[in-house]
Amino acid sequence: MYIVIFLIILAALVLVHEFGHFYAAKKAGVRVDEFGLGFPPRIWGKQVGETLYSINAIPFGGFVKIFGENPDAAAIAGAYGPRSFVGQPKWIQVIILSAGVIMNILFAWILFSIAYMSGMATNVSEYNNKYIHDSHVIVLDVLPNSAAEKGGLMDGDILISYRAGGATTTVASPATIQGVTRNSGGKPITFEVDRAGKKSFATIVPQKAASGNHSIGISMDMVGKANLPVHLAFWEGAKLTGRLFINIFAGLYGLVHDALLGRADISQLSGPVGIARLVGDASKLGVAYLMSFTAFISLNLAVLNLIPFPALDGGRILFVAIEAIRRKAMNPKITNAVNAIGFGLLILFMLFITYKDVMKIWG
Fold first, then answer.
1. Which domain range does residue 201 map to?
2. Are residues 238 and 218 in the same domain?
3. How far apart are CA 226 and CA 118, in angstroms?
4. Which residues contact 57 (CB under 8 A, 6 or more apart)?
């Protein structure tokens, strides 16, 4: 079932991205020859006006064939006329090329906003407290070699109660935990935790810090399910979209930087198979989680397409920028060859990541 959900999500993300290019090109008066879901060979197609709408056999992707986007010598010479992509001013070309990324960001914002309205997990603050229910304290991070790690606490554990000095107390907030550990005197504290729906206990001996206080070495937050009104949902959705976009961009920059130094760890990267499994996990948690995960994938797609690599939107924008600086069109044979090579390398990389995903399942 989750395979079907994954294919629906993939189709939606591709349609959103390619619709951005399609809409921007149409608004600029550029002819669009084909709007395709998936990659050829073609399974079905219907001509509507000047555009062919098609469904193709390879489901991982899609495309918009814009007149003159992959130019030949005739296009460069102006023989294609004002309705071609290359016949447009450079700034319009950049808008058309970046419209897919913009649509993916807007799509993520909308999904996050709807999720906030329908019960997405979020941190509790004075700003949104009256709209939050089922709130609890969750462990965000356990420091290596800390008292918490030695006692068996893990990231994602929900802290229900603690027993110290012979009394059991319900965990009301992160401040509750901070207070009891700070004043524990190094005596053991037993926590009741909820880990993926299963109750367990962890006994932890707080360690004395340099400040003289005791701690167990975790970071926590108060989270709950949000049912925000429309205006707050879109505001919180915008903030989350912006934060995640920056974090994904920074993470990708770090990965590329490490790759250039020969120390990149690609074991955590996921291809279609890995993402399909994650979609299945998210769908089990509910619609709000599934929408949030789809929004996260959409932002990843936006960031990836901004990479200045041939065949990606970022690479094509780079070529437009080079032409603007040179005030001269690039040789179409070189441009098309570089984009074709880039596309081939991307397909090979996707196949490699898919192979790694399959090995993780069968291993």
1. 129-226
2. no
3. 7
4. 38, 39, 40, 41, 42, 43
Write the burial class of residue 53 (CB in 10 Å: 0-12 exposed, 13-18 middle, 19+ buried).
middle
How confident is the model at residue 330, as a pLDDT? 78
Please state, as a whole number, how many other Cβ atoms lie within 10 Å of the Cβ of residue 363. 6
- Residue 317, pLDDT score: 92
Largest CA distance in the chain: 87
Strand partners of residue 215: 207
Rounded Cα gap, residues 51 and 346, in angstroms: 27
160, 246: one domain: no
What are the residues facing 204 on neighbouring strands? 189
108 neighbors 295 (Cβ within 8 angstroms): yes
Residue-level length of the chain: 363
Mark whether 268 and 355 lie in a shared domain: yes
Residue 165, helix vs strand vs coil:
coil
Strands 207-208 and 214-215: antiparallel
For 224-237, the pLDDT digits (tens) are: 887 888 988 899 89
Q: What's 161's domain CATH number?
A: 2.30.42.10
| Listed residues 226, 250, 285: the one ending a domain | 226
Inter-residue contact 232 to 115 (CB < 8 Å): no
Whether residue 85 is predicted with pLDDT greater than 60 in this model: the reply is yes
For residue 124, tell me if it sits in a domain. no
* 0.85 exceeded by pTM: no
Domain match, 10 and 112 both? yes
Q: Give yes or no for residue 6 having a pLDDT over 80.
A: no
Residues 213 and 106 in one domain: no
* CA–CA separation, 87 and 80 (whole Å): 8
> Is the pLDDT assigned to residue 271 strictly greater than 70?
no
Q: Is residue 346 part of a domain?
A: yes
The total domain count for the chain is 2
- Pick the catalytic residue: 18, 34, 69, 236? 18
Q: Give a yes or no: residue 358 inside a domain.
A: yes
Strand partners, 190: 163, 203
- Tell me whether residue 192 is one of the annotated catalytic residues: no
